[in-house]
Every structure is written in structure tokens, then in C-alpha cells.
Design brief:
It is built from 14 helices and 43 strands. With 790 residues, it is α+β, with helices and mostly antiparallel strands. Belongs to the peptidase S9A family. Its EC number is 3.4.21.-. Keywords: Hydrolase, Protease, Serine protease.
């Protein structure tokens, strides 16, 4: 009893002591106030054009010469930067995780795959700690004896004690010459391998400067020295260089010839005085001729210059009474013309290959069609070597590469392609694009191609056209964390389960799919790729490609990201992008809409989505988005849009038409204010820009521009989706377009903190730095994930 009382006493005393020590929990700090929405000043300005008058409160943002306006712009941009940081502050952790995922997938190629030309192997490599690459070469005979994967920078054969690598151009040193920024537009090595001609961007003056470097001494040549250069082509086996310069409006209009090593002034070979005529030059693959293309909105012409005697004049070999795409090659006494020009003076929905004897006596020159049209198969591109012509062909949504012997086995043309029994090269499944390599060596029977797919990292492949052997010379393996480098060999971490080296296949079949997808690092075991045809508002069938994770496909919640471009007749970028793997593995669906205006279905498809018909691009995109939802491919209210440049215009306009359809969108350097940009261009525009988006001087085009313009058609009093707009002061469509659009969206629509409209500014160096690219991509994807989960 006493013991019990003693224990009770001690317990109560302890309890009282605990009570005295007990402190009530502190109240949680109040949540931070919501970030302040940026409010740029409004300075309404009235505009009148044709029969329309409108007011723009933010036109001051594009007045780059107004110091007061630019000061206000700086303040506003700072506010936008802080606002975006505050809104996305709670995504810091997921951004870090995403960036880590993306960085781990970066391909760490120390070298581009060497390209053989004559006795040399040319390649670019990155030295440790340097931002820009170095252009190098080594003799092919020595390359087989010495390959260093970990340190190709050494270029040293420790067995013989000889340095076998020659540095040709260090772009880090070029960056020092050009104000810390190195951007090369083009480069051409002379056919005698003695000189390198290249053009570097002069950021301060906004033009490209021509430089020529002696490859033996490494020194810059004193001439030619020219600014505003748009094209270059070698002649006289490397003893002369032809180049094209532009006028103040960036129109290529003059061709000069410079004799290397001579002190004489450069000679003007050709000049186009008409302000709407453009000039372009290129050498034929065999370096026998330089072709000169002159073109405007009403005609196209091609001239030949004898490369052995560039001062002998220009000879007209082809002309057409309409703008047309045309490339001429020379092969053993024949000129070959690859063009989309039609015989009746217009343009075709596809390209044809024509030929004509080099020495043709009558005038005008007669061109014969080589292959009979096949409605089920179109020729997308051609490439020549001494013994073969390779054709990239498209059949429905499938791409193939076929090889035809040269000279042709028949004297009479045209012929059916199948009748001359072309040989087809092996390809993986789901090829989305094929790009010919530079293939400089005309005498080599080996051709290089880059094979792209939505479910496979890009593969750089060498095909031996004589015997069917093929070799993947560079491709990242997403599963085994290694990249093939330096002519098909692999580094020490290569998985032994993935075969490498040379493969041989039969040429005699049209079934071009390789037997073993593992040879291609194909990811179809993990990701599926489906194809759909979507009926648009007028019955046009729009190709829609969908990619998703097989492991995540059956989950109930499937957000989707719908990509688009739809301009200039360009193909939608449907390559594997390693950063988007982070979305696929989180159950997202990636979709790609080949809307009109792009190049998905030929020339007519492009024409049906440009100028006054631009609304077709936007309506096609909307119908593709609805298709994804209605067919339960993407969950309703879980679809996001993604558009770059002109693709940003399509997405923004689609949101104006159907704001309820989208939950979020990412617009990268978008074209958002076509009315003002086309009427009052701040940066020079080309004829192609006006043909693409419309001539405001034409009243019908002007009304069409006003109708599709994202900035001029933002609906009022609606709930807009969350939008992240990425732009820069140095993009073609300046930051003022993005800033104006963001400000007006906030003015016109309901302000919902769960659906913010954000402006994110980037810098020039993002394009040059892969790790900064992953940071930007991580921010964009974190934004999308947050908006879908809100």
C-alpha cells in the first residue's frame, strides 16, 4: 500500500513536472502571400490599316529605340522573372529530380563519328572544360591503328610516338574573336584538303563573316574577307572560292569569286538588281560545276558555272515560271534535276527526278523524267555517288532507302522504279525521318544516313552500297548507358548483350525492317507508337502519331502533350527526345499532329495551311486534340499543347478558339503578334515569311491575318489554360511578342492562381550548353506536371 502510494506520488509529481515543462506548440507561420501579378504600363496606340482600326495598349514594348520604353521593359521583365520563380517555387524538388534524370541520359560523345573523305577522317570533338568543339582530322590509315575513346583529344600514338591528329579549327578561340559567342553557319573544306572556308556569326553587326584558313599552317588567309555572306562553294579544285553576299535587307544578290593566294580583288560574277530575286550557290558532288539558283515569287532558274574556269560565265540549264524547289547534280555526262516543278508551270505535290545530257545542242534544253509516278510511293530526297543514286522514299507513313545502280541499266526513260529492281536498305520500325549525311566523298560507295524514330534514339548509319553491309557508327543506348562512337566501336561500358560491328543483309526485298530490333537500340518493348488519321473540319485527314509507355498505358489518368509546327512546309520534328522520357515514364501520352502548313503530306498540304488558309492549321490541331479526348487516348481536361516558333502560333490560336479543351500549354519562342510583325517588321522578313503568313498589303490576306492572330483574338471573360511562354531578346520573334501576349491574356481572361500564365526568359547560351538545356526542359516539364496535378 505504501509502495503504491509512493509510486502514485512520484508519478503525479513527474506529471506535474512534465506539465510545467510542457509548452504549447507554436502556431504555424501564415502561408506566404500570393505573388504579385506583374502589371506593365498601358500606353494605348491606335492603328489603321485598310478598313480596320484597332488599339494596342502594349505596342510600346517593341520600340527598341525608345530608351524610356526599354527601361519600362527591363522593369517589367524583372517582375515577370520573379513572378515565374514564385509560382514555380514549389516545383524546385521535382525540377531537380527531372534535371538529374535528363542529365543522366545525355549522350557523352567525345567525338562526332568520323567522316571519311579521301585519305582523311574528319570529326569534331569537345575538350574537357570547353564550351565549343574542335574540328579535327586524322589519316584513315593511322586511324585503324590508334583509337582512343576516353581521350581522343590526345591524338597521340604511344606506340610510334607520333601525333596523328591535326587540329583544324578551335571554336573556343573563334568565340574569343567574336565576343565570346561562336556560331558557325556553314563550312566547306576544299576538294584538295588544303583550305577550310567557313562563316561565323558577328553578333554585334548581325551578319555572317567569311573566313578562310590554311589547313597546313593553321593561319587565317588574308583574303577573301567578306561580310554578310550567305553561301560558299569551292572551284578550281580548291584554288578559287565562290561566295554570295546579301544586301542590307539580308537578300542574297551578288556572287563573287576569290582566287586563293592571289592579291587581286575578288571578281563579281553575277548580280541580281531586282529587289525580290534571291541567289543561292552550291557545288555538284563531283566538284565539276557550281550551280547558281535564282528565284523569286514568280520564277526559278538554274545556271551552271564550270568549276575549272569560274570566269567563263553562267549557262542557263533550267527555268520555270513559278517558284520551285530544284537541285541539280552531274553524273558521268548527265545532269540530274530533282524538283517539284510541274510541266504546266505550277508545282507538284511531290518531287520528280529528271535528267538531260550535259552537252545538249538544241534550245530550250529537254529534260526527261527518270521514274514513272507511283501514287503509292513518293521520292523525298536523293543523293549521288560515283556508282549509285540513293532514294529516300515514303509509302504511307513508312520511309525506305532504296539504291539504284548508275549509270542506269536502261537507255530509255521513264521507267517504273520497281522494274529496275532497286535494292532496299535495312531500317528499324517506326522510322519518322531519314536525313542523308554530308557524304562528301563522291568516289566512295559508302553513304551515311541519320535514322530518326519516336521510339529509338537517332542512329547514324553507314551503308556499303555494293555489298549490303551496314554499320551503326553512332547511337545512344538508353537501356545500357553507352553510346557508339568513332566508327562503330563502343566504349568500355558497352553491354555485351547488344551486338555491334558490321552486319550484312539481303538487298533483294522490299521488307526493309531489320530482323533484330536490338541491333538498333529500339525501345518498342517499352514504348508503343500508334498512327491515326483524324478528320478535320472540312474532311481533310490529318496524320496523328501517338507514343506512350506500355507499362503505364492502362492507368486511369493519362495526361497528354500534343506537339505541332505546321509552317513553311517543314516536317514536324518526330525524333526521340530523351528529356521527354521523363513524361512517358510518368504515364503521359505524347502526340504529334501533322497539320496543314507543314510538310507531312507534300506540297499541297503545305499550301492548304499557309497565307489566307492558315486557319486550317489551327482547326486541324483542335480536331486532333478532340480526337485524343474522344477516343480516350488522353483523359479529358488533361491535355496540354506544345509549339515552337510558328507552332506556338497554332497552339495559342487553338486556345483562343477552344480554351476549355486545354489544361496547359508550353510555347517556345512563339510567333504571337503577326498583325504588327508583318505590317511593321522590327527584324527583316523574307518573301517566304510573307508567303507563309500572308501579305498584309493584300486586303484578303490582311483579314485572314487578323482572324488567326493569337494576340488579336484573345477571348474575354473566359478561364484560360495555364501557359508557360519561353522567349529571349535575341530570337527572331522577339520577347516583346511574348510579353504583349501574356499581358493581354491576363487583361482579358479570369485570373485563376491554379492556371497561371507565365513568361520565362532564356539566354543565348542555352542553345550551346546541353546542361542548361536540361534545366530549361526540367522547368517546362515540372510546370506541366504541376498544372495537371492541380
Amino acid at each position: 500500500m505504501l509502495a503504491h502510494l509512493s509510486r502514485t506520488f512520484r508519478h503525479n509529481c513527474g506529471f506535474r513536472q512534465q506539465c510545467r515543462r510542457y509548452k504549447p506548440p507554436k502556431s504555424q507561420p501564415p502561408p506566404p502571400p500570393p505573388p504579385t501579378l506583374p502589371k506593365p504600363p498601358k500606353k494605348p496606340q491606335s492603328f489603321t490599316f485598310h478598313d480596320a482600326t484597332w488599339e494596342d495598349p502594349y505596342s510600346w514594348m517593341s520600340k527598341l529605340e525608345d530608351k524610356v520604353a526599354m527601361r519600362h521593359m527591363d522593369i517589367y521583365m524583372e517582375q515577370e522573372e520573379k513572378y515565374t520563380e514564385a509560382i514555380l517555387a514549389d516545383t524546385d524538388r521535382i525540377q531537380t529530380k527531372l534535371q538529374s534524370e535528363m542529365a543522366s541520359r545525355l549522350s557523352f560523345e567525345l567525338s562526332t563519328p568520323p567522316l571519311r573523305w579521301g585519305p582523311w577522317l574528319y570529326y569534331r570533338r569537345v575538350e574537357e572544360g570547353k564550351q565549343y568543339p574542335v574540328l579535327c582530322r586524322r589519316l584513315a590509315s593511322l586511324h585503324e591503328e590508334f583509337i582512343s575513346h576516353k581521350s581522343p583529344a590526345a591524338g597521340f600514338d604511344f606506340t610510334s610516338g607520333k601525333r596523328i591528329e591535326q587540329k583544324l579549327l578551335d571554336y573556343n578561340q573563334e568565340a574569343e574573336r567574336f565576343g565570346g559567342y561562336a556560331y558557325e553557319e556553314m563550312s566547306e573544306i576544299s576538294p584538295d584538303h588544303k583550305f577550310l572556308a567557313y562563316t561565323m556569326y558577328d553578333k554585334d553587326n548581325d551578319f555572317f563573316r567569311l573566313c578562310v584558313r590554311n589547313l597546313n599552317s593553321g593561319a587565317l588567309c588574308s583574303k577573301p574577307h567578306a561580310d554578310r555572306v550567305s553561301n560558299i562553294a569551292w572551284a578550281k579544285n580548291g584554288q578559287a572560292l565562290l561566295y554570295v553576299v546579301t544586301d542590307q535587307k539580308k537578300r542574297p544578290f551578288r556572287i563573287y569569286c576569290s582566287t586563293i593566294g592571289s592579291t587581286d580583288e575578288d571578281v563579281l560574277l553575277h548580280e541580281e538588281l531586282e529587289g525580290n530575286v534571291h541567289v543561292n550557290i552550291r557545288h555538284t558532288k563531283d566538284f565539276h560545276f557550281v550551280t547558281v539558283n535564282t528565284f523569286s515569287s514568280t520564277f526559278s532558274k538554274v545556271f551552271l558555272i564550270n568549276a575549272a574556269d569560274p570566269f567563263s560565265g553562267l549557262a542557263l540549264v533550267w527555268e520555270h515560271n513559278a517558284p520551285a524547289h530544284c537541285i541539280i547534280e552531274h553524273h558521268q555526262g548527265f545532269l540530274y534535276l530533282f524538283t517539284d516543278a510541274s510541266k504546266d508551270g505550277g508545282t507538284l505535290d511531290h518531287h520528280n527526278l529528271l535528267r538531260s545530257p550535259l552537252h545538249f545542242s538544241s534550245s530550250p534544253r529537254i529534260w526527261e523524267t527518270v521514274f514513272i509516278d507511283d501514287p503509292e510511293l513518293t521520292i523525298e530526297d536523293v543523293d549521288f555517288c560515283k556508282t549509285h543514286v540513293s532514294l529516300i522514299v515514303k509509302q504511307m507513313h513508312s520511309y525506305k532507302i532504296c539504291v539504284v545502280d548508275l549509270p542506269l541499266k536502261t537507255e530509255r526513260v521513264p521507267v517504273h522504279l520497281r522494274d529496275i529492281k532497286p535494292r532496299y536498305l535495312p531500317l528499324p520500325k517506326h522510322v519518322s525521318q531519314i536525313f542523308p549525311g554530308t557524304n562528301y566523298d563522291f568516289n566512295s560507295p559508302t553513304m551515311r544516313f541519320t535514322i530518326s524514330s519516336l521510339v529509338m534514339p537517332d542512329a547514324v548509319v553507314d551503308y556499303a552500297l555494293l555489298n549490303g553491309k551496314w554499320n551503326i557508327v553512332q547511337q545512344q543506348n538508353m537501356l545500357h548507358e553507352r553510346t557508339r562512337v568513332l566508327y562503330g566501336t563502343a566504349n568500355a561500358t558497352e553491354s555485351p548483350n547488344i551486338p555491334s560491328g558490321t552486319r550484312t543483309v539481303s538487298f533483294d526485298t522490299e521488307d526493309t525492317t531489320a530482323d533484330n530490333d536490338n541491333l538498333w537500340n529500339d525501345l518498342t518493348e517499352f514504348y508503343a507508337c500508334d498512327y491515326h488519321q483524324v478528320s478535320s473540319h472540312d474532311g481533310a485527314m490529318v496524320p496523328l502519331t501517338v507514343v506512350y509507355s506500355r507499362a503505364q498505358r492502362e492507368e486511369n489518368q493519362r495526361p497528354g502533350l500534343l506537339h505541332v509546327h505546321g509552317a513553311y512546309g517543314e516536317m514536324l520534328d518526330k525524333r526521340w527526345r530523351s528529356e521527354l522520357k521523363s513524361l512517358l515514364d510518368r504515364g503521359w501520352v505524347l502526340a504529334y499532329a501533322d497539320v496543314r502548313g507543314g510538310g507531312g503530306k507534300g506540297k499541297k498540304w503545305h499550301q492548304e495551311g499557309r497565307g489566307s488558309k492558315k486557319l486550317n492549321s489551327i482547326k486541324d490541331y483542335i480536331h486532333c486534340a478532340k480526337f485524343l479526348v474522344e477516343n480516350k487516348i488522353v483523359q479529358e481536361n488533361k491535355i496540354a499543347g506544345w509549339g515552337y516558333s510558328a507552332g506556338g502560333l497554332v497552339v495559342a490560336s487553338a486556345i483562343n478558339h477552344s480554351p476549355h479543351l486545354f489544361k496547359a500549354a508550353v510555347l517556345k519562342v512563339p510567333f504571337l503578334d503577326p498583325t504588327h510583325t508583318l505590317i511593321h517588321p522590327i527584324l527583316p522578313l523574307t518573301a517566304a515569311d510573307y508567303e507563309e503568313f500572308g501579305y498584309p498589303g493584300d486586303i484578303d490576306d490582311f483579314h485572314a491575318i487578323r482572324e488567326y492572330s493569337p494576340y488579336d483574338n484573345i477571348p474575354k471573360d473566359v478561364l484560360y489554360p495555364a501557359v508557360l511562354v519561353t522567349s529571349s531578346f535575341n530570337t527572331r520573334f522577339g520577347v516583346w511578342e511574348a510579353a504583349k501576349w501574356v499581358a493581354r491574356v491576363r487583361d482579358n481572361t479570369f485570373n485563376d492562381p491554379e492556371r497561371p500564365v507565365l513568361l520565362n526568359l532564356t539566354t543565348d547560351i542555352v542553345e550551346e550548353n546541353r546542361f542548361l538545356q536540361t534545366k530549361e526542359s526540367a522547368l517546362e516539364i515540372a510546370f506541366l506536371i504541376k498544372m495537371m496535378e492541380s
